[in-house]
Write a structure and sequence with these properties.
The protein is built from seven helices and two strands. It is mainly α. The chain has one domain. It has a two-stranded antiparallel ribbon with strand order 1-2. Helix 2 packs across helix 5, helix 3 crosses helix 4 and helix 4 crosses helix 5. The longest helix is centred in the C-terminal third of the chain and has 22 residues. It is globular, with a radius of gyration of 17 Å.
């Protein structure tokens, strides 16, 4: 993520303490769906314009960047896009990034790709362990 996106996010968020959970923050960033279902029937659209449109733009741009430049995000995106569509997968990755940003800003922690896409990192270590059992040398850090 570059300086423009980072500054846009930090300026648009304001006080991160007003969001109690990562889900509330993701909702404010418009990275989650705003529809209501009951018994698999559509009951309304809720308010699709609630939240910050600039944060929505910034997190979708960050998701596109992450998909292109980070292996763990690309693998997660590819799996999600195979099951749904590229648009939904991009929005889902933006939601994951928004929740990760909440953790970074609210708790002051460092970015950990293993927490963002644990299933991808877990698969890497399983493959590395399997190749080591066969006598091959593999580095799970790749």
């Amino acid at each position: 993520m570059g300086r423009v996106l980072g500054l846009t996010m930090s300026m648009e968020v304001g006080e991160i303490s007003r969001f109690k959970t990562p889900g509330q923050f993701a909702s404010y960033c418009r990275t989650v769906d705003s529809r209501r279902l009951s018994n698999n029937k559509k009951k309304g659209d809720n308010n699709g314009k609630c939240g910050n449109k600039y944060l929505a733009w910034a997190f979708v741009e960050a998701a596109n960047f992450a998909r292109q430049h980070h292996d763990h995000c690309r693998r997660w995106f590819d799996r999600k896009a195979a099951r749904t569509s590229k648009v939904i997968a991009t929005k889902a990755l933006a939601c994951k990034l928004a929740k990760a940003a909440w953790h970074l800003m609210s708790q002051g922690s460092d970015y950990d790709p293993g927490r963002m896409c644990p299933e991808v990192v877990r698969q890497k270590f399983v493959r590395a362990a399997a190749s080591q059992k066969k006598g091959l040398v593999a580095n799970p850090q790749d």
